[in-house]
Structures are given as structure tokens and as C-alpha cells.
Description:
Blueprint: H1 3-20, H2 24-29, H3 38-56, H4 58-77, H5 82-104
Helix pairs in contact: 1-5, 3-4, 4-5
Amino acid sequence: MFKEWIAQGASMVERLRLEGLLSSAEIERLPAAKRVSRVEMHTWKQHIETRLIANFGPDTKLRYDDLTLITSDEIRRGVETAADQVINDIERILELLRELDRRITPIT
């Protein structure tokens, strides 16, 4: 159910990690398809939120919201760089999606 969203999230993490290794000038020279835009990430999260509510109900949406609170708390405390916080946020969401996907995907 979430395979395409998991793949997109993993791709965003990979691209963000690549950006973290580059200078600002190198990042600017990257083609748009190799960078993660705010629009892409926002749209990805909105689609996930919609699917969570529609398919799993309010309890799962609350779990998702808790992940967002963890990221907000890290930002407030200045735990890591902004790029690391974004990556951590996506990875937390990916873990939830993988768990939900395992629940609904039959083991063969």
C-alpha cells in the first residue's frame, strides 16, 4: 500500500544526504531532479497523512503527529543541523510506513 511512498521517501533521504556532502555552489549546480524541494516533501507528507487517516484511522494519525512533535522538539533544542533534522523526520515517517505496510502485506 505504501511502497511508492516508501520509495520516494528513501529517494529524498538519499538526495538530502548527497546535498549534505556538497558545497552550496555544487548544490546550486545540481539538476532539480537531484534535489529535494520543499514542495516535494510537503506534498509527500500530505499524501501520507491523507492515506493514514483514510486507511488506518485517527490513532495512526496521532502516531504520525507524534513523530512530527519529536522533530519540532529537536529543532527547538538545536539537537542537530537542519538537514539532519529533515532526514530524521523522513526516516521516522518511513519506519512507520514500513511497519504499516508489513501489517497489510501478506508474508510469502
